[in-house]
Amino acid sequence: MISVENLSFIYDGSERRALNEISLRIPRGAFVGVTGASRSGKSTLLRAMAGIVPHYLRGRFFGAVKVGGLDTLDTAPQQIAHIVGFVGEDIESQMICETVEEELLFGLENFAVPREEIEPRLAAALEMLSISPLRGRKISSLSGGQRQKTALAAMLALSPQVLILDNPSAELDPAATESLYDALAALNSRGMTVIAAEQKVGTLCRFATQMIVMDDGGALLCGAAQQVMNDTAALAAAGVMRPRRIELGARLRAEGLYDGDMPLDIPRAAAMVRGICNDRV
After folding, report:
1. Are 197 and 46 in contact (CB under 8 A)?
2. Which InterPro entries does the UniProt record give (predicted)?
3. How far apart are CA 56 and CA 164, in angstroms?
4. Are strands 31-36 and 210-215 parallel, antiparallel or unpaired?
5. How far does Cα 120 stand from its chain's mean position?
6. pLDDT band at 281, cuts 50/70/90?
7. How far apart are CA 207 and CA 121, in angstroms?
């Protein structure tokens, strides 16, 4: 679905490589989590996959990014947008209409969707995210979680093959974050490729099938979520804030009490602790 070959990028006015010789593959239907410390290159990588870099954010671009077989450097951003839906971190700057319905209609009309398809697509996108009751609401009256889902619905109505989200839970409380990721998991189960960048590794590793750990513009780790989270030393070196259950697993491993996979969720952490306790009885 997406291939990245020897990708490097330097923003205009800078000498620092925001991305440094990255090569990776993302298959169709994957749920990919991208994490790393601040300024590690997460957002730039996502924007390169969406064609925003280098078409809208200028700089020196080396290597290649292909999405659905299209080279993003040689393809018009409008054409890429028919394949990739991008939801940035700053939701406020993306909302340009007064109501939820108008926000979805704006994208559909801009994409010249046939009139007879507009209502079915709009209704289906709202229903998919369980926000149909918000259809007539003013965006200014919505909570952070509701705005995030509205932005997501506006993308879904356009029927992209790939959905890319940059730090989607930044302004959300734990309950809203869980609801959002449940919705993303449901979309992924229907075949949509989902790529989300987060610093909340505990959330990402529970939902993602693959993980990419960025460090100083490079992809330090890239692989199955379990494999990546097992490399606790590399996570620490990259400045990734490990969730407490992973931290516990790493400490128990260091003390020779545990040699299994790092627990990606609470039930597996509980099973890890029970196993150690049973072994010591």
Report:
1. yes
2. AAA+_ATPase, ABC_transporter-like_ATP-bd, ABC_transpr_CbiO/EcfA_su, ECF_ABC_transporter_ATP-bd, P-loop_NTPase
3. 17
4. parallel
5. 27
6. low
7. 26
Bridge partners of residue 221, in order along the sequence: 213
Which residues partner with 66 through β-bridges? 3, 71
pLDDT of residue 174: 87
| pLDDT exceeds cutoff 80 at 64 | yes
Contact 47, 53 (CB under 8 A): yes
**Rounded-to-integer distance, Cα 127 and Cα 135, Å:** 10
Q: Strand 19-26 to strand 193-197: parallel, antiparallel, or no bridges (unpaired)? A: unpaired
Quote the tokens at residue 181: 């990721």
The predicted-structure confidence for 233-250, as pLDDT tens digits, reads as follows 899 989 998 899 999 999
| DSSP string computed for 40-93 | SSHHHHHHHHTTHHHHTS-EEEEEEEEETTEETTTS-HHHHTTTEEEE-S-HHH
Indicate if the pLDDT at residue 280 is higher than 80.
no
Q: Say which DSSP state 138 is in.
A: B
Q: 113 vs 67, 94, 107, 156, CA distance in Å? A: 22, 20, 9, 13
Q: Could you tell me which of 121, 55, 123, 47 has the C-alpha nearest to residue 86?
A: 47
How many residues appear in the chain? 281
Q: What are phi and psi of 201, to 5 degrees?
A: -65, -35
Q: What is the mean pLDDT of the chain?
A: 92
Q: Which residue has tokens 């093959």?
A: 161
CB 116 within 8 A of CB 143: no
Residue position matching structure tokens 């780790």:
221
